[in-house]
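REQUEST FORM: STRUCTURE PREDICTION
Request ID: SP-0412
Submitted by: Lab K.M.
Chain count: 1
Length (residues): 226
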Amino acid sequence: MAGVKLSREDGVSKLQEGTFSLVARCPRTSALGVCVSTAIPAVGSVVPHVELGVGAIATQAYTNILYGVNGLKLLKEGLPPKSCLEKLLKEDPQRELRQVAIVDKHGRRAAFTGRETSEWKGHVIGEDCVAAGNTLTSARVLEAMVEAFEGSEVWLADRLIRSLEAGEETGGDKRGRMSSALVVADERMILETRPLLSLRVDLHTEPVKELRRIFEAYKEWAGITL
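STATUS: Completed
RESULT:
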């Protein structure tokens, strides 16, 4: 498949992908989440990393999932996102191929876009959110995502879906579309036994639209009216 690279480095699989994502926190509820879409399969298995009461991370471009796994551990130890990101990048000889966005439980944010990631690339740090993307049609994709997120006061998961739709409508991944994902940690969801919402769409011609359909069906099933 054009534009996809698979390799092994230090025992960890890496996946090259063009992606647009947004990590966010709700200051009212302390909910945390990530939304993401891309033109390759299974984006939900590698990019979004969320832990209730800790933070949310998107790791993409030449993806190294350890930025998510170890990043959450460092946030849990009390490191602010900027220090957490600096530590992870310092230990990574291929950091210029990475793209990472972080928000913690306090709303502190940090982001990095490596110089060797694919154009158009970049990130936008907004209020309680960070949008990041590479292999995009233009910078407007991320600007639209942040505007959509900040322009709404509804439940965090709804705001993330709206942000993803705005990114898609503005051009999204310039190679096309195939998968999407939404992960939200919110202690108020479906009693205390289901604090994590994790929805994925794979191998679909309209992954963002399908994610919205599944999300609405999930809310109806769960009786979520937040």
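NOTES: Confidence is low (pLDDT under 50) at residues 1-16.
Reviewed by: T.R.
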